[in-house]
Amino acid sequence: MAKPAEHAIEVENLTKRYGGLLAVNGISFKVRKGEVFAFLGPNGAGKTTTVEIIDMIRTPTSGKVRLLGMDVTKKKRAIVPRIGVLPQDFSSFDRITVRETMQYYSRLFSRANADIDGLIELVNLKDKAKEQYKNLSGGLKQRLGIAIALVNDPEVVFLDEPTTGLDPRARREVWEVLLGLKKKGKTLFLTTHYMEEAEILADTVAIISKGTIIATGSPAQLIENHTNYLVLTLQSVDANAFEILRKMGFEPVRDNHQDLKVRVEHPEDILKTLNAIKDVGGSFLSLDVRRPNLEEVFLKLTGEALHADPAEGGEVG
Amino acid sequence: MKLRVVNANLVVKLKTFYRERTAMFFTIAFPIILILVFGTIFLERDTLSLDLYIQDLDHTHASAQFVKALQINGNFKIIEVDPASDAREYAKNHRLNLILVIPKDFENLLNQRVDLKAPDASVILTYIYDPSSTSVKTKMEYLNMEFAGMNQRMSGKPPFYRCEETSILNRKYRFIEFFIPGVIAMAVMTASLFGTVNLNTELLQKGIIRKLSTTPITRTDWILSNILYQFALAIISTIAMLLVSYGVFHIDLHINLWLLVFLLLDVFAFVGIGMILTRFVQEAQSAAAAANAITFPMMFLAGSFFPIEMMPGFLQTFAGLLPLYYVNEGLRASMIFGDNMAALRYAAIIGVFAAVVFALGIIATRWEEGK
Hints:
The complex is a heterodimer. Chain A is an alpha/beta fold. Chain A folds into 2 domains: 7-224, P-loop containing nucleotide triphosphate hydrolases (Rossmann fold); 228-290, YebC, transcriptional regulation domain (Alpha-Beta Plaits). Helix content of chain A is 32%, strand content 26%. Chain A has helices at residues 47-54, 76-79, 98-108, 116-122, 138-149, 168-183, 195-201, 219-226, 241-247, 267-279, 294-302, and strands at 7-18, 21-32, 36-40, 62-67, 70-71, 83-86, 156-160, 187-192, 204-209, 212-217, 230-235, 253-254, 260-264, 286-290. Chain A has a 6-stranded mixed beta sheet, with helices on both faces. In chain A, strand 4 and strand 5 (70-71) form a beta hairpin. The longest helix of chain A is centred in the middle third of the chain and has 16 residues, at 168-183. Chain A is globular and about 75 Å long. Chain A starts with 6 loop residues before the first strand and ends in a 15-residue tail after the last helix. By secondary structure, chain B is mostly helical. Chain B is built from 14 helices and 4 strands. Chain B has helices at residues 3-19, 21-46, 61-73, 87-93, 106-114, 136-154, 175-206, 208-212, 219-249, 257-280, 284-301, 313-319, 323-335, 340-364, and strands at 50-56, 76-80, 98-102, 126-129. Chain B has a 4-stranded mixed beta sheet with strand order 2-1-3-4, sandwiched between helices. The chains are: A alpha/beta, B mainly alpha. Chains A and B meet through helix 3 of A and helix 1 and helix 8 of B.
C-alpha cells in the first residue's frame, strides 16, 4: 500500500508563460498537510497564476505540480472533490439565496449530506440564509464564497486574495473564519498582498515577486533572517527632530500620520536618539519600538512596496 | 454526464428566470403581445369591410337599390354624404380618401338602358379621391370589380370565362394561423440566442465559470443543462402563446409531435450560435449587439411575420439561407397543412444545421482558462 503523501502540495520548477510574458518563473515549494501557507506579493507578482495552476483553473507551461500526491494535469477528476476553492473576485448567481447557493454547490459535489446549516453558521450568515446573493455586502459575499469552498469538506482549501476589496472590519471577520478553519486542521493555501493577513494566519509565508519566490519561512523566521534592526516611531514630534536624526546618521521618514519613523540597529541607539531630541528641548507625545514586519522584509528584499494601503502607513527608510 | 448536476443547474436557472421579471417579460409576455397586436390588426383583414362614402345626388328608388347592392355584394360599410354639400370640399374637410358620387339622372339613364329606349346609355359614377392615400387604390379596385360584375349581369348573357376554386388544403386558413407558427419560431430563437449569450457572458465576466471549473461539473453537464433550460422555456412560452391564441382568436392548428421536434431543433440551432458568439464576443454588451444583428434581419427576412413570396426574388433566395426560415416553414407544414413529408424535409435541413453549429458551439465553449 502506497504511503500517504506528507505534503498536500508539491510544486517543482513551475513556469507559466503568456506569449512573451513570463508570469511564473520556475518556482518550487512544498506545503505540508494541515499547514496554512501564504503566498505574499504585490499585484502582478504571479500569485493568482500559481494558485490557479495548482487548483487546476489554468494549465502550466512547464514544471510539475502534485496536489494530494496526484499530478494536477492528469488527475483533475480525482482531485477536484478533495479540494475547495475561493477564486479571486468570487461571484455567484445574483438571484439565488445563500442557502440555495450552498445547496447548489453541494449537489455539484454530490454531497447529499453536506452540513449546509453548519457551514452557514460557521461563516456567520445564518440571518442572511434567505437573502439573494445580489443583496449581500462585499464581506458577506466573500464569507459565502468561503462556505462554498468548504461544502465538500475538502482536505485543501485555496483562498485567492480572500479579503481584497473589503473594509477593515469585514476583513477581520473573514480572518476569524479562516482562523477557525486553521483550528480544524485544514490545509489552507492563501494568496494575499496584505502582510498583516499573512502574519496573522500563515504558518509559512512565501514571498513572491515578478514570478519568482524570493524568500520562504514562518513570518518570524523571515523577519529574523532578513532584518537586523528595530523600528522606532515617535508621535507628534517637533519639526527639528527630523534634522537632528539625519545629522546623527539615521534615515528618518514621516508616515501618513506625520509620525516619525526611524530604523535603529542597536537598542542603545534608541536612548541616544531620545536624548538628542531632549537636548535641543524637543518633545513627542508617545513612542513605540517594534520589530520590523513582513512589509518591511518585502521592501528590503525587493526594493519595492508590497502594498499601498493608506490606512497601513508608509515605509521605513 | 451526471444527472444530479444537470438537474441542479436546471433548478438554479429556472429560479433565476422566475425571479428575473425582465427575462420573464421578453420570453413570455412579449410574444403574446405581438400575437395580440398583429392578430387584432389582421383579424380585420380576414373579415374585410371597407368604409364607403356615397353622395347620392339622384335620391331615387334605383339609386337606393344600387347602394344596397354595393353594401351587400361588395361588403362595404356605406356612409351617406349630404347631397347638398360639395363632395370635393367634404372629402378634404373630413380627410376622406374616397367619395363615390351617384349623378342626378341615375334612375332615368338606367331605365332608358333597361327598357332599350337607349341601349347605349351609360351613367358616369364619379370617384372623388385622395391620390396620396395608400389604401384608396385598393378600395377603387374593389369598386371597379363590383361594377364589372353588375355590368356583366345587366348584359343578360352568362360570362364566357368562369373560374372554379379548388383548394389544396382541407380548409381555408386565416392570417393569424399563418402568423402563430412564425411567432413561436421567432420567440424561441430570440430566447435561446439571447439567453445563451447573456448567461455565458455574464457568468464569464463575473468569474462564475472559473469557480464552476473547480467543481465536478463538466462542460458537457453545463451545456446540457443550458439546452434543457432553454427547451423548458421554449415549451412554457409556446404553451402560453397557444393558449392566448386559442382563447382570443380561436385558431385551428394541428398540435402534434412535430411542434416539439421543431422547438428542440430551434433551441439547439440558436443555443449553438449563442455559444459560438460568446467565444468571439465576450463583453456582454457587444455580445448582445451581435445577437441582435443576427436575430433582427432573420425575424423579417425568414418569413416569420409574412410570407416570403411577398419579398423580391433575391430576398427570397436569401431567406433560404436562414435557419429560422426552415423552422417557420416546418412549423407551418405541420401545424397548418398537416404535411408530414414537408415537415420531415424541413426538420432534416434545420437538424443538420443545428447539429453542425451545436458541435461548433461545444468546441467554442471555454471551460478552463488559458492553456
